[in-house]
Fold each of these.
Amino acid sequence: PSQARINSARQRQDSLTKPPGSLGQLESLAIALCGQLDTEKPAVDRVQITVFAADHGVCDEQISAFPQSVTGQMIANFAAGGAAISVLSAALGAELDVVNLGSIGPLAEMPGVINHRIAAGTANLAREPAMSEAQLVAALAAGDQAAQRAADRGAQLFIGGEMGIGNTTTAAALACALLGAAPTDLTGPGTGLSKQQVTHKTAVVERALARHGDNQDPFAVLASLGGFEIAGLAGAFLGCASRGIPVLVDGFIASVAALVACRQQPALRPWLHFAHRSCEPGHSRVLDALEANPLLDLSMRLGEGSGAAVAVPLLRLACALHNGMASFAEAGVSEGS
Amino acid sequence: PSQARINSARQRQDSLTKPPGSLGQLESLAIALCGQLDTEKPAVDRVQITVFAADHGVCDEQISAFPQSVTGQMIANFAAGGAAISVLSAALGAELDVVNLGSIGPLAEMPGVINHRIAAGTANLAREPAMSEAQLVAALAAGDQAAQRAADRGAQLFIGGEMGIGNTTTAAALACALLGAAPTDLTGPGTGLSKQQVTHKTAVVERALARHGDNQDPFAVLASLGGFEIAGLAGAFLGCASRGIPVLVDGFIASVAALVACRQQPALRPWLHFAHRSCEPGHSRVLDALEANPLLDLSMRLGEGSGAAVAVPLLRLACALHNGMASFAEAGVSEGS
């Protein structure tokens, strides 16, 4: 981001007809967007939403309330317009792409769905590495291609969503490995497990971490504990930053992808906005590690990029205020003492 | 609100393609709007924003960082389109009215500004009752007329904003009197006082409460401690509820107006949504008394209705999701166990 743009944007905010700082996070949002988009008058009219979907071998361990077939069914629902992220994308006038990185079964071609199926889901991370190095490279590249599509379309903001039954287990394992945290602190109910089921899920994460060992290299952790869609998100975030596109990070899964990517490339961090604090208990710990203070806390826990989509109007209104308000001098309003 | 609509809306939310409850407060928002608007498919396309402005005699006590002339200057800024609420109204496609209930000096006629000037500001509440009973009735009536204009325009949501240099002092005194709270707990920096200035402001609120005594009748408290614009807001909120229009309450001042109005008429409460948690320290105490859990917490403290305006897209997206998502049956997605 451009420090010169950030400095002049901060000066402009202090000249506008309001007590200094009284628009709170809307001021810092507008200032950051000026730096990221390298402009005096920021706008986020063109939003790219890309949902990465994949299945998880760890579902063999019975860690989800939903059957694995739901991943493919939801891909069809995204394409048909019936899912939350489909409705939100339409309401926001955003572009929506879905990238299938590894549903358990092959899917029919559908408009808006890019078939980039690496395998029939990852391997079971509780027993063996979730993916091979070649598979990791393929998933990261699919993410980078999504960033390139966003750049080609002139996107001013990128949102990465995810769909994958079992992926809160994967994300908890990844976060534990990167943060050195205990599985009991980061494993939660996901789509709706009982307390007893969360205890079982926690034990599965513990087995995965014992198998993985203490390697904290970000991409080694990612290959070992996996999630094709999480690797896709990490690749997309890195690809957006390198192309100058700010990213609005969704909930727990997307934040874990951001954590992996920031550990790999710390220069990514200033390109990231954080949209919301998920109900999933591990999310706050991951946000703390990223020094992130998200915009919303609405008890959401859906994924798909839905929490980030809901925050888009806040960025748009922050831009409108920054660009459209009068200064004290322009309006003839007396400044405070 | 219609309990039958609320019940069927809750059933619909549980049928949609997402883990039950995973859209958090967006689900409860949509359900409440179905009951308030008495419909299966809620929408908040037509939003009325009315900003009530007035001056405060308590400014004689040096409790604000800004001179009293700013109230009138900001009324002109609202009309000219340069204030935060003007920019937000335009961005949201909302109707914006400004009602001048008592600037210290008379103002020229301006488009969008309704002249309903009761007096040259309230009296100094630290020394005498802020307004007479006749003045209270006039301010409440101006609020009711604003609700009637909203109804005439088919508004699906009402936002009441306020402008009045000195009105955090007034609001703190009102909240203390109604809640039996200590001035030190509810008096804050407003537009930007130093710690020492807040101590002085707190002493002014203490003098006002000592003069007022222990009468907790809501409208008696309102007349004694005042704020023409706060009475206007209270009248508007009551008028909206009686006409079936839901209200989105802004920050500290508007919430104190809601507290007065709910104490007067408890049936008002189910018509109110709360938009944001202000930085002003007294706000959380007032929200607790109203059992309100606001949508946003963005460190805003501007007033004008700006925090409520920023929350409007959340209501709109909640409606879009409620109306537009597919059910599990429609999408052929398997339900959880």
Note: Residues 1 and 36 of chain B are 4 Å apart (CA to CA).
Amino acid sequence: AQNAEDHFGQNQQIVVLGETLAATTQQVQQLQDSYYDILNANKVFVDEIMHLQKLIRAQFQVHNELINH
Amino acid sequence: AQNAEDHFGQNQQIVVLGETLAATTQQVQQLQDSYYDILNANKVFVDEIMHLQKLIRAQFQVHNELINH
Amino acid sequence: AQNAEDHFGQNQQIVVLGETLAATTQQVQQLQDSYYDILNANKVFVDEIMHLQKLIRAQFQVHNELINH
């Protein structure tokens, strides 16, 4: 009987571990998806920053023309 | 006796799994918090990039006025 | 015999839990590395945005000089 009780206790622990692990694995998968969202957002930042750099270079060119006329 | 030893071995494995899972779950929670930090940082980037775009548009307006005078 | 079968079943569950946990822990470690990559990318964004702010301030100075001459 003691052995059966121990066995039951171990089963319960295994069930709880399995449920906790399933929840953790799901949270990790959501974080993985969030990471891809961040990578996409960062690509937009890079594009926009490069666009701003280009505009500012164009403005320096305008300044040079204004100064030289 | 063999059965009791097996039982003890399983108990040890369950304890190690539980500890490893607790450490992993904690690391996942920290990553979740870090993800929120990144989301907040990205909001600041978006605001600042939009502010720079607005300033650059204002400067093109200044250029137009300088050129037309 | 029943007890030995139960024992075998539990062993299998423990093995599966261990393998799943190892895979999850590895994925968490990769996410941790990815998070450091994002932190480094964000430092570059901050530097570049501050550089753009500096350039735009310099251009407003040019404008003031052009307007006052």
Note: Helices of chain B lie at 2-67.
